[in-house]
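User: Hello, can you help with two protein structures?

Assistant: Certainly.
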Amino acid sequence: MKLEQSIIGRLTALVEEIRRLGESEFPYPYSESALKDLRAFLEAVLERIKSQDELADKETVRQACRVALQNMVDYLPIAGFLLRSTNVRNAFEVVHPLFRMAATLLEPGKDAKDANIRLLLSSEWDYSPFIYRLLPALPGYVLIGLPAPESANPLLIPLAGHELGHSVWLKYNLQTELQDACTDAVVQVLQRRSQDYNRVFPYKIQPDTDLRRSIFHLGQWRAASEWTLQQAEESFADFIGLHLFGFSFLYAFAYLLSPGLTGRSESYPSSKARLSGLERAAQRFNVAVPREYADLFDCDLEDVGDLSETSQFLLSVADEARDILEPRLIERAADLVAASSVQLSSEEETNRILERFKLVAPAEHCRGLADIFNAGWLVAEDPGFWKELPVVHERRDEILKELVLKNIEVFEVEWRMRRAI
């Protein structure tokens, strides 16, 4: 079997499968255009393999085959995501308003119809919402996945704000902007905790040690700097989601993730730090935090016992360094949202919509998505809501979700009518 022929066969099968997917019905255009772009990308990869000359260097051919194989591994899940984005389980009513929010956030000052981004919302067989990033085949696309059992639940859409936060992080290259600040924060913590450092590492901190320049020391603590930057991105994404959607982001966050898991990822802040950060950001953004919110989470159960003593120390350093950066992350999120002119929520508008929900009717002339979701969560958190309407109250959760989606649909229709005038 010739290696390139095997790769050609596999690539051809994938391209053909994507072609068949392209014959599906598409409720909105972005899924269809993404499939066309993905197919064109893979066809170009296929053509490069086919065009290899018989006399080409063997290693050159193998390298081309390795690249092709990696593309297949990377993009087969994307094809599945694009197919699931056409499934009726998704809340299609949300797609266009959420796209406009994303466009306003990521391309401020540009009309949504001229925006370069394309947003897709789909179900995923992964419990936590996430975003696909850095896809060379699909530049400009923002792909947000929600857990399949909840993909039709509009009250979880505010969690997309966190995923949009990752896109903002990439858009404004905040990793580069904050790299030196992360290093400074880590070095500050290490110098303060020099005794702990000297206990776990062979190269000790001396009075004249320059932790930034010594290659021996840098190799010992570099992981802490990397984890700090990763944690900073996750915190920043939280702050963007909170600022965009208000307290509905907090409710959706708790609904999906409380009481929390016992494991701890080095790239995420601890649950305790994450919650305290959200509370501080909420104070800065004038967002009301639900009463006893932190009690919904078991922050003390996070276990790092499977990490080595050295890794546990570095993780604790990263945690402290992220704490140092937190105020800057909150302000950066505030500045970027303010610069985007995204319509934020207000208590008055949320209460106005809530009054219409009492009548089991959508509200007209809504200003933005956040107020609709905030009103929806106020209903969800009030077990006595619609109690005077027994038939409605009996199906309260189902009717609430339908009502929120209907209100978003009214919001979208009114926006289109205004544009047509």
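That covers the first. Now for the second protein you mentioned:
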Amino acid sequence: MRVCAFIGHSTVKEIEKVAFAIENTVENLIASGVTEFLFGSKSKFDELCLKIITDLRKKYPQLVRVYVRAEYEYISTEYEEYLLKFYDKSYFALAAHNAGRLSYIKRNQEMIDKSDICVFYYNDKLTYKYRSSGTKWAYEYAKRKNKKLINVFEP
């Protein structure tokens, strides 16, 4: 089973254009044997990717949607049942254990480590006044790990 992680900025411009790029990318990934898709949270990009994978499951029922939590190491049965309405599996990223404010960065790193391919929505021109981009950190980490990267961001 080949694995793909989705990581991107919290906001997405030109949603229809990006959705088209994601769907084409995912169709090619499925053709190359990718069946498991890892998702984080807190991003419009994640939501968009989840919707596309969920829709494609009608055509490709073998696809597996996995929500990788950066918070809530231990969850109630009720919360797990809620998550499983949207995902096929959910687990807590062990790298995020006791990571505090770095929990999302550590979670993304674990997702990258477990993936064969990483699909990003990453704008390298984006700057923040008071902090740096977690997506930038993840993108640079994936490059250092020599992961296959696909960036669906188009300026």
